[in-house]
């Protein structure tokens, strides 16, 4: 009996050690927090690191050689909406406004033909489109007080059939509405705090505007659109959070507020959540921890801001181990969805 007890104790002890070693081995399968975070940043800057493996090109024909990046194992993200927003030169993709004048089937074939060529010639992996906002002029499928849902569906299907992942943007769908004098005053003060000044941006203008959950005449259209596309989501889809300053968040950038964490639609979204370009925001003032909690991928097209975001988050993780646990979950999710 004593021998049996000793044997049992030895086995239990060995099992405990083995389990501890197994847990330690599992722990070691992850890159360092710094490298895991780098792998979630979508940026033109690689820092000669194999971990920062996402690419982003918003504008310009210089991206024609993007297959060079693909050959090196980098994923190519591009903004290909149609019209003037196509990123890659040499393609005649109609703008969403012009698309709404076409039959959905004709539009599908046009997009499919062009996106298939982009996939082959430019190795695009993720398209940062379509627009689902109720504004944005020619860039929007909302025309003549109507949302052209079949054309959004055609665009999405054509991209997916070409092997290109899509990104619904921006969330929540926005319609610029008139602000009260009090709201306008609050917005102007908030924009000075949260967003970069236009003169400090490479494009010379700021894309950060005010936002307000759609109410009134377009509320039903917004709900119908969201319900419609939510039935077609799959785990390879992305959705982009808005940088705009929302009335409901006290004119805090939506992406840096707590609103996304309380959003039932986002919590049930099966794909990846991505930010808009954080270069537009002032990372010295926005809550970067909220930005991190709200998204899986982070677009930053400024080298300075890429380094700043990385530094701020690594510092935050040093004082909050729960953020590292969350980082591992995001890392696993991105690896599963994009690879």
Your description of this structure?
The protein is α/β, with parallel strands linked by helices and 339 residues long. It has one domain (36-338): TIM Barrel (Alpha-Beta Barrel). Helix content is 43%, strand content 12%. It contains twelve helices and 13 strands. It has helices at residues 2-28, 33-38, 67-71, 96-99, 104-122, 149-161, 181-194, 219-230, 264-268, 288-294, 303-319, 321-338, and strands spanning 41-42, 54-57, 75-78, 126-127, 142-143, 146-147, 165-171, 210-211, 238-241, 245-246, 252-253, 272-275, 298-299. The strands form four sheets. Strands 2-3-4-7-9-12 form a six-stranded parallel β-sheet. A three-stranded mixed β-sheet has the order 8-10-11, covered by helices on one side. Strands 1-13 form a two-stranded parallel ribbon. Strand 2 (54-57), helix 3 (67-71) and strand 3 (75-78) form a beta-alpha-beta unit. Helix 5 runs parallel beside helix 6 (149-161) and helix 11 (303-319) packs across helix 12. The protein is globular and about 55 Å long. Residues 1-15 have low confidence and may be disordered.
Write the topology of this structure:
Elements: H1 2-28, H2 33-38, E1 41-42, E2 54-57, H3 67-71, E3 75-78, H4 96-99, H5 104-122, E4 126-127, E5 142-143, E6 146-147, H6 149-161, E7 165-171, H7 181-194, E8 210-211, H8 219-230, E9 238-241, E10 245-246, E11 252-253, H9 264-268, E12 272-275, H10 288-294, E13 298-299, H11 303-319, H12 321-338
Parallel strand pairs: 1-13, 2-3, 3-4, 4-7, 7-9, 8-10, 9-12
Antiparallel strand pairs: 5-6, 10-11
Helix pairs in contact: 5-6, 11-12
């Amino acid at each position: 009996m004593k021998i049996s007890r000793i044997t049992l104790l030895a086995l239990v002890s060995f099992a405990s050690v083995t389990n501890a070693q197994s847990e330690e081995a599992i722990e070691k399968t992850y890159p360092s927090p710094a490298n895991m975070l780098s792998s979630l940043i979508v940026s033109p800057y690689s820092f000669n690191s194999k971990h920062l493996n996402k690419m982003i090109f918003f504008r310009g024909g210089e991206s024609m050689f993007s297959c060079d990046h693909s050959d090196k194992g980098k994923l190519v993200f591009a903004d290909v909406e149609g019209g003037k927003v196509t990123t890659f030169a040499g393609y005649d993709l109609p703008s969403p406004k012009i698309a709404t004048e076409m039959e959905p089937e004709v539009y599908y074939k046009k997009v499919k033909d062009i996106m298939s060529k982009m996939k082959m010639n430019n190795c695009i992996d993720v398209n940062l489109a379509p627009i689902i906002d109720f504004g944005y002029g020619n860039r929007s499928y909302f025309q003549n007080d109507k949302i052209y849902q079949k054309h959004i569906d055609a665009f999405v299907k054509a991209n997916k059939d070409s092997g290109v992942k899509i990104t619904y943007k921006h969330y929540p769908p926005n319609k610029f509405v008139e602000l009260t004098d009090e709201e306008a005053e609050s917005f102007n003060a908030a924009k000075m705090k949260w967003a970069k000044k236009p003169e400090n941006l490479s494009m010379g203008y700021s894309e950060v505007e005010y936002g307000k959950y759609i109410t009134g005449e377009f509320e039903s259209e917004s709900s119908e659109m969201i319900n419609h596309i939510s039935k077609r989501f799959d785990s390879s889809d992305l959705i982009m959070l808005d940088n705009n300053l929302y009335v409901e968040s006290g004119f805090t950038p939506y992406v840096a507020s707590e609103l996304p964490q309380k959003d039932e639609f986002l919590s049930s979204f099966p794909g990846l959540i991505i930010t808009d370009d954080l270069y537009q925001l002032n990372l010295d003032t926005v809550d970067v921890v909220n930005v991190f909690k709200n998204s899986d991928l982070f677009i930053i097209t400024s080298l300075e801001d890429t380094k700043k975001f990385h530094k701020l988050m690594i510092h935050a993780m040093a004082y909050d181990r729960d953020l590292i646990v969350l980082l591992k979950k995001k890392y696993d999710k991105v690896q599963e969805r994009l690879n």
